[in-house]
Specification:
Elements: H1 2-9, E1 24-27, H2 42-49, E2 53-56, H3 58-66, H4 86-95, E3 105-110, H5 118-127, E4 131-133, H6 138-141, E5 154-159, H7 166-186, E6 191-194, H8 195-204
Parallel strand pairs: 1-2, 3-4, 3-5, 5-6
Helix pairs in contact: 1-3, 2-5
Length: 217
């Protein structure tokens, strides 16, 4: 590929999977005719939550023509449709020495998420410092299994409303009621959050967007 060719020439390394060691993520060029959010891929979200430099593809081709890595400023993504930049917020927070976006968070997935494999979801959450668990509050109920000071402070049940039929919705409400009872006994907060809200939170790099959802009848 063009990226691999330029990387070999300019002494860089191309990897297939994102990790904390990745410094740059290259995405397709952004056009003014693109619909809002059209470029929001798992690759882009991973770049944001990992605080990597996310640059448009022209940076690669222009660097190839120049024979060296050209300055990055002109190739950064413009502000998103919300009028802010998740990647800039991520850089700033990291530079200030703040913990990752989901530090202290544990998430439980109810069912599946359309167009987002569980493996990708787990990778996104892990890159943000959080953890995907099979059962919320487990470490609060059995504190001996984990050092108390490391126990999660935020507990989130994720669900995709597009995948919930009548029977699934009833099961979801039952699951929420059970978790709410446990949360009340422990004096802990519980949030029930749509999967799209989680992705919006990463996209804007702002946990204030991780809003609770009312699923009551």
């Amino acid at each position: 590929t063009v990226v691999e060719k330029v990387a070999r020439t300019l002494k860089a390394k191309v990897v297939d999977e994102l990790s904390s060691k990745v410094t740059h993520v290259v995405v397709k060029n952004v056009s003014k005719d693109d619909s809002p959010g059209s470029g929001r891929t798992v690759k882009l979200l991973m770049g944001i939550i990992s605080a990597a430099r996310i640059l448009q593809f022209d940076w690669v081709t222009d660097s190839m023509e120049a024979g060296y890595w050209v300055l990055e400023d002109d190739y950064q993504l413009p502000d998103n449709e919300y009028g802010n930049s998740g990647q800039r917020r991520a850089w700033f927070k990291k530079a200030q020495g703040e913990p990752p976006l989901f530090h202290g968070y544990e998430f439980q997935l109810f069912g599946t998420i359309q167009n987002l494999p569980k493996g990708d979801l787990e990778q996104l959450i892990s890159a943000g410092g959080g953890v995907l668990v099979t059962e919320l509050f487990r470490h609060d109920i059995k504190p001996q299994s984990r050092r108390p000071e490391l126990a999660p402070q935020h507990h989130v049940l994720l669900f995709d409303p597009s995948n919930q039929g009548i029977m699934r919705l009833r099961k979801l409400r039952t699951e929420v009621a059970t978790l709410q009872e446990t949360a009340a006994q422990l004096g802990k907060p519980l949030r029930v959050v749509k999967s799209q809200t989680l992705l919006d939170t990463i996209y804007q790099y702002d946990t204030d967007k991780l809003l609770d959802t009312d699923i009551s009848e």
